[in-house]
Amino acid sequence: MPDAPVLVVGGTGMLGSQVVAHLVARNKHVRALVRPTTTTAPLVAAGAELAAGDLLDIASLRNALDGVDAVVSSAAGYTRHTPGDTIETDHTGNANLIDAAADAGVRRFVFTSILNCHEARDVPHFWAKKVAEDALAARGVPFVALRPGAFVDQVGMWGGDGFAAGRIAWMGDSTVPMTFVYTPDLADVLAAAVDADVSDGERIDIGWDRAVTGRDIVEIAGKILGRPLELMEMDPAQLRNAGMPDDAMKDLIAMFDFFRTGRYVADTRRQAEVFGSVPVAEDAIRRRLAALGHVA
Length: 296
Ligand SMILES: NC(=O)c1ccc[n+]([C@@H]2O[C@H](COP(=O)([O-])OP(=O)(O)OC[C@H]3O[C@@H](n4cnc5c(N)ncnc54)[C@H](OP(=O)(O)O)[C@@H]3O)[C@@H](O)[C@H]2O)c1
Description:
The chain is α/β, with parallel strands linked by helices.
């Protein structure tokens, strides 16, 4: 069924919108699951077909999966893309999608997971990914889980563009090496994973040529920009006053605690085998700064 659609779940999100573009560029027929509250014009402009639905409504998922070849999901509730979303989406919503995909007999399910989620029992949104991976396996869905590190796109973006301001606020310990990804690169491998030569049930770490610290990123970015950047380390406990829901705040603080253990580091050997190359930190940071308009 070469023309059968790839269902993208989360296609209105920061990462998912880029996955849609990469799939269209690969001549895939893309169907995007969309909630009634979201903005769909960019998806239509990108060439996607729309399927109305919601992860919390399993009947809508069964409709959206009709005739589908593969699924790519980057959806999440804990990110609160739409106000009122909660981590319940990452449990019940993902369970619904996995059940419906199992029943529909999809050829492949590409799941956006999180690096080393299986080691992070105390970080609710990491653990929800581990639970979803296990559910995919238990339901016999042919899946590949890509497990990216932290999005470098979010570095320096607390309260505006820190690279423009010359000051990067860094939440947590800036001396602990950890793995990052740049979302255009992640979107590319998520789209490639639909047809990649992998075994069912593989979990593949996604990162750069090496783990880097906050200080490394600020130093590399400063060299590229040709001007020094100030690093302002922030204590994650300050999130207690950030006005976010209690569960979201605790989840984030637990995540920064996990980062501090030094275990948020990828083994990218399988990434290199399957996808051909692993981005180099300096190059990814340069491309990020170019996208922000700071370098050519
Ligand atoms: N940020 C990081 O450092 C990091 C690291 C590793 C992995 N990840 C993973 O990367 C993925 C993508 O993140 P992102 O930044 O692109 O997220 P995002 O911009 O917040 O997008 C979330 C998407 O999920 C959709 N969604 C939420 N609840 C839904 C529901 N009930 N039914 C259908 N769709 C629903 C949203 O649709 P609406 O438009 O309707 O709201 C939106 O398209 C997430 O799975 C995240 O866990 C992130």
